[in-house]
Protein: Translation initiation factor IF-2
Amino acid sequence: MAEVCLRGVICRYGEDVTLCFPDLEIPSGEQAVLLGPSGSGKTTLLHLLAGLRGPSAGEVWVDGRNLATLSEAQRDAYRRERVGYLFQDFYLMEGYTALENVLLGLGIAGVRGAAALRQAAEILRAVGLGQRLSHPPKRLSTGERQRVALARAVAHRPRLLLADEPTAHLDRSRAATALDLLTQTAKTLGATLVVATHDPWVMERFPRRLELYPHPATRTA
Ligand SMILES: Nc1ncnc2c1ncn2[C@@H]1O[C@H](COP(=O)(O)OP(=O)(O)OP(=O)(O)O)[C@@H](O)[C@H]1O
Structure:
């Protein structure tokens, strides 16, 4: 069974927006990119995979489970424990240090106390921020802020890592470094990685690609 599988998925927002997604299979542990212009539904698709919303029609399967069949409590547990989400705008807590930001993420996943502290420091060191543990986000560069966000997204060792426009705020050289870190981190964890981007340069770096088009979104690559 593929780690990620979409079958006949349609998402509607009110009367005006209907997004039709191509069928998709991503085997466990693989890395895939979603390419599409603004409004083509990339974020919506990541939200579907994260269980943050359900489709209007069709099925979203992850790790052998149709997400629509999960109870609310099971879906919450799925989101907290199995999914890591790297947001385009990072959404770091400004009043907290880098370490505390990662600890907050771990707390949501149910990891607390000494184990959480050890895990948070370890992952921050792994992304090259060992010297920045007690820095608040405002004292970090954009690339460093993103690495805190990545550390928070993966500290609980998710099986599925979703990244929304991970190069949006970075120049080419920093973007290359960030993508290397993202793909290497997913590989180390054995996580399936799905990256959404509007940038063909990012797409070129992934062997498995899915292109989305503004309504109706129909073509796969
Ligand atoms: N909560 C919402 N309510 C109404 N319409 C929405 C909502 N979320 C998304 N849409 C619409 O759905 C379409 C797809 O949006 P989505 O954010 O998934 O696309 P995207 O490809 O990620 O765009 P971008 O690259 O600009 O982030 C857009 O037309 C958007 O306006």
